[in-house]
Amino acid sequence: MTEDIKGLIEKIQEEGIQAAEDKAAQIEAGARRAAQEIIEKAESEAQAILARASAGAERAEEATKVLLKQAGRDLILSLKKEIEEMLNKIIVFEAQGALTPEEIIKIIAHLVRDCAKKDKEDIIISLKKADFEKLDKGFLTRLKDEVKRGIVLKPSEDISGGFIISFDAGKSHFDFTDKAMAEYISLYLKPQLRQILEG
């Protein structure tokens, strides 16, 4: 009997150990499956994150390229504008320097002599105050006597250099001011400047 009990105990122990080992194997297999699923899910999520990050990086790179191109165009346009403004200032400065009172006297004398015979109305010449004072002394009287026609000099606050002349008492006029001359010269130079800047 003791042997039967002993055998029974051994059998129970063996079955218990076997059952525990089977249960442990099942738990281990389940854990392996769960771990494999977690790893696969993590890898899938990592790949999705990488794909999103890569797409985001590409979009950011494209946006940066577009912004850089726009900034480059804006900079070039701004530089062109500044260069044109600088050119205009240089032209006005040079025109003012060229239109000295002596040169103005020569130009006016030439214009008046050539056009005085055509009409009989007064010739009106507007110029800046400093030039008016220089021309008003002596030159005007000699010119009036020479062309036998009325010549009126008018000082103007709006004129910074050169003069405006009218042969029909102010109905129409010819603009020889520094600004008008600079505008005319700019019309000629700007296309050439654009060619240089775009070349």
Would you tell me the structural class of the helices and strands? alpha+beta
DSSP E strands, number: 4
What percent strand?
A: 5-15%
Low-pLDDT stretches are none
The residue-averaged pLDDT reads: 78
State the assembly state of the protein chains. Answer: single chain
**Major sheet details:** 4 strands, mixed
Number of helical stretches of at least 4 residues: 5
Spatial extent as radius of gyration: 49 Å
Order of SSEs? HHEHHEEEH
Strand order, sheet with most strands: 2-1-3-4
Distance between the termini: 116 Å
Basic shape:
rod-shaped
Helix content: over 70%
Textual characterization of the structure:
The chain has 199 residues and is α+β, with helices and mostly antiparallel strands. Helix content is 75%, strand content 10%. It is built from five helices and four strands. It has a four-stranded mixed sheet with strand order 2-1-3-4. β3 and β4 (174-177) form a beta hairpin. α1 (2-98) runs antiparallel to α5 (178-198) and α2 runs parallel beside α4 (139-147). The longest helix is centred in the N-terminal third of the chain and has 97 residues, at 2-98. The protein is rod-shaped, with a radius of gyration of 49 Å. The protein starts with a helix and ends with a helix. The model has no long low-confidence stretch (mean pLDDT 78).
Brief write-up:
With 199 residues, the chain is of the alpha+beta class. It contains five helices and four strands.
Provide the descriptors you would attach to this structure in a database record:
single chain, 199 residues, alpha+beta
